[in-house]
């Protein structure tokens, strides 16, 4: 596969991970050619006098001997302050010692580069399951030297990402764990792998390593520990499992192939990243970097060629070379096959005979997450981000209402409703946003936004309405990025997981990073206009978390930056107004979850602060709003995924341990989880203590 450019990205993610996880999506030019306003567009503005000193007072202040963004000036509140958050800046201004909120009462884990999972003092951990362990009864135990495709279909897949845990329908001593398997890293999987000439068996093992696992697990006594079990619900879903297309794209000429002339059934799912658990106990999973699996070839149809280029499908061969063994991965032979990926898929874990579906009413893009909020009137709202630089945030509002206990009805909810895309603006004058991280005169990075209609679907009656000029309904569904371009959607910095607070119902968005924002020098060509108020740090290497107060079933919202991530010693970081001398450094937020106390838990991917990735907890309201602590770190080279947090346990998926630039199968830089000289394996970790998580 031809590289799109030198890897100048500054995170800790290795070139090996970049190649196999996302197809080097960070390299080369941005795939979004529109002229829409970007999530950041003023970082090349020369620094003004207010960068150092602003009239009316300092906007960068010293806190605990280090520089910090002021949460408020004399009488103003910091970003996101509202009822319940009135104390946002008090620890900074008054140096008040406050007690951590329930769920946050643990000793923060310090930054490190250890080849192990590090947890707070007083906590225990165990590995629930790792790559290759049997899922289906009768599958062989894992032997890295004796892998077969048939065995892999019955074993735990590779690089587990999203994690969910639900009650078992029949056994109170068991739970049901479910996860996605985002991608495979073939050079780390096989002792004799030749990237230029993979074998057919190796390719088919890779197909089996993708998809999902449904696994029954048992509780261990009165602890939070879990153990894997064989049970009737256990299931593996792979890159060859049949999926049903539903919604406006079903049956379209744009999704028909030789193997599927009706355009109704897709073989498999690919690059499933984050997702969500629905209130009706199904699993949503986003097909993210699917583009990397398809070789562009010689495309004659200009419309098809343009669509492929919008996702960066340009190379005539792929890194994995799957196109040599199945024509569907060769776009010159099957130009519609990529249109069958990039969807939110839904899986019913409680029915192992059910056919998973791809909900085309939710739009096609690099889905990160698919998380549900139920409005007071039963309306279902689904939020999702398009995880690429300068792509968009979406939501879907159902026309059907949620009906508790009616699984058949609820399984159709996401096929009936309207898809929207977000347009944002700041509320400060543009000349007050210079990319330095200095607060504007009103003391907050905040603003408002609107949701713009793209598509309305009524699948039962086969009625679909486009709200975008020049696009049919099926074209909006399939070419969602282009439709969003047309309506002027706001370009963001890799919007990843999106979660709704269980009590306040505010929406939290992880914006992982964009080091090309406001870039100069060798990266200048990748700076697609500079940032506005909602991206106040040029060359955004560490990411942010946005807080949105949304009219969930309406078309308006307000926003603020809750976290501007990075080293708290740096002036251009912000932690909800909390004293920055008392928080953990955090970089590259990715997956999100809430605990039962309303604290936000954040995993990281690609820590740019020269330490391992980890799992962090942060208080979202009250006097300690913005207090952020590292709960655990994962082994060297690994990414933290999941997570699951409840009163009894914390669970994380440890993805790609040991993936370093200099790592090979024979010269591994990690031996986690088995130790010794073993092959590193992605795995699931359970953490617990005597008592409730985060409570003394």
Give an overview of the whole structure:
- With 696 residues, the protein is mainly beta.
- 8% of the residues lie in helices and 29% in strands.
- The strands form seven sheets. Strands 15, 16, 18, 19, 20, 21, 23, 24, 25, 26 and 27 form an eleven-stranded antiparallel sheet that branches. The protein has a six-stranded mixed sheet with strand order 10-9-14-13-12-11, with no helix packed on it. Strands 4, 5, 6, 7 and 8 form a five-stranded antiparallel sheet that branches.
- The chain is globular, with a radius of gyration of 24 Å.
- The model is unreliable at 1-9 and 38-94 (pLDDT under 50).
Q: What is the CA-based Rg, rounded?
A: 24 Å
The geometry reads as globular
Residues in helix, %: under 10%
Percent of residues in β-strands: 25-35%
Can you summarize the main beta sheet?
11 strands, antiparallel
Q: Indicate the mean pLDDT.
A: 88
Output the number of helix runs. 9
Poorly predicted runs are 1-9, 38-94
Count all strands and give the number: 34
